[in-house]
Amino acid sequence: MPSINFFEEDIRFKLKDKTKVKDWVKATITAEGYKLQELNYIFCSDQYLLSINQQYLDHDTYTDIITFDNSEKDKVITGDIFISIERIRENAKKFNSGELNELHRVIIHGALHLLGYKDKTAESKQLMTNKEDQYLGIRNFTQSR
Description:
Layout: E1 3-8, H1 18-31, E2 35-44, H2 46-57, E3 65-69, E4 76-84, H3 85-95, H4 99-114, H5 122-136
Parallel strand pairs: 1-2, 2-4
Antiparallel strand pairs: 3-4
């Protein structure tokens, strides 16, 4: 049974409108021609995500998201997405985007990585941003400004 799950590690955080977020992410995956198997979002602190970044990616920097693709079949999504709530809050202030909007952007950003989108070059980053904007536009639930 396909599933999207939400967990918290070392912080207390409750996602609003979980069912609507799940439906939105599933719609994005389907629109891109993929099938969902299992997707886990793990909300955590900066320090927790930094330790994952150091341990698994050999990067010694803070980040807002790390995505692990555990898929074993083409066009089938299975993965774990770690999101720093502290980074989301900081970036929301930095970009004046609202915490919920920033969280949704990062949630869909992680899904897009699993769908094959990259963000290492200027061109791929622009495509990723365009896709984020496209799918943020189909949310059918309240967003903070």
